[in-house]
Design brief:
67 residues, elongated, mainly alpha, single chain
Length: 67
């Protein structure tokens, strides 16, 4: 287990940013997979909602990339 008291604030921030980036990538991948699944099922509304989610998280990735 990591001793977070011994880690600098900069290192904690870097770890948090890596976690955020990983989570954003996972959400985008899941949303993109859902778009394909919903398209295959013929559910255009759900596919559009999943595509919007993917777009929003890709946009969030762009916003946090500069942090």
């Amino acid at each position: 287990m990591t001793d977070y008291k011994a880690i600098s604030d900069d290192a904690k921030t870097a770890d948090a940013m890596k976690d955020l980036e990983r989570i954003e990538q996972e959400v985008v991948a899941e949303a993109e997979a859902s778009v394909q699944d919903f398209d295959a099922m013929g559910d255009e509304g759900a596919a559009a909602a999943a595509a919007e989610t993917a777009f929003e998280f890709e946009d969030a990735q762009s916003a946090t990339a500069g942090l």
